């Protein structure tokens, strides 16, 4: 239950920022292209936070790092709401990314420990609560926007709530430092498939990032939806992702992780393409909902496979896959923002469609190969 709590909190904090992107963009006086460049700092901060967090978590244990990450992520979530220009927003997003990265990798490492004891797939269920946090954020954001509350007020309240929840839930975490940490001599070798999974995570998470960062603006700018209706684009994506992840563990147990990654990526591509090419608001919402359902089980398969590859370095391997995944989030907003100078925003969505297709054809990497050669980290 503590693990579920941290996943839900992280999804809520990030989701609440996402639904306030149009408001913050207007308040700071920046355009889509500049926003795309600033969002690179959020991904960069997350990448650095994950790389540091992975090493620290394996060394000192999840029981300490998870609540610290939760507190830092909660406090830093307020900062974008206080930004008044591009420089302050950039700094705020970098710090928020650091807190989010530390919390993300540590809570996923703890989820690997819980799944190992549970002895059947449960990773998708944890990620479902992350999506559930996003749904709650979308609904909360839609309501507070209709009340015309400032981003600082809403994000500030969320920060206080997050700090309290992080401290209270810490008591129920498992202390697995001795089992997680393995002393190694010399230069540790990393399975080649870890890096392949990391690249696929980058492609899939870029596709998720397209929905996270641009779906709300897509409905507003391309289909002329109101801010309240546009916020539901992310809500539709997060809702079906939650339902899909609640079902994904059972599907994985029967069909296998390869099938979940392959077919999920294919369905995700179809959903994003539908949303991008739709001339109607309702069909675009359906498209984002399909995309959420398809992509729902993909990232958990990659994280789980990385965490179980080497139990003594679970957090470090998760940080590699999640870190390169966030490089996708890092590159995605900037690339799509740049593409809006050349093509409309909806046409730019065809890039993540192509990446989902690549992930679908590469899903076989999740098959375990005991004889696999290793390469230096």
TrEMBL record:
Residues that span the membrane, as ranges: 36-53, 60-79, 85-103, 124-142, 154-174, 194-211, 231-248, 260-282, 288-309, 321-341, 347-366
Residue span, Major facilitator superfamily (MFS) profile domain: 1-371
UniProt entry keywords in alphabetical sequence: Membrane, Transmembrane, Transmembrane helix
PROSITE patterns: MFS (PS50850)
UniProt-listed Pfam families: MFS_1
Topology versus the membrane: Multi-pass membrane protein
Location in the cell: Cell membrane
InterPro entries (UniProt xref): MFS (IPR011701), MFS_dom (IPR020846), MFS_trans_sf (IPR036259), MFS_Transporter (IPR051788)
Keyword Acyltransferase: no
Major location (coarse): membrane
UniProt cross-references to PANTHER family, sorted A to Z: BYPASS OF STOP CODON PROTEIN 6, INNER MEMBRANE PROTEIN YBJJ
Official protein name in the record: MFS transporter
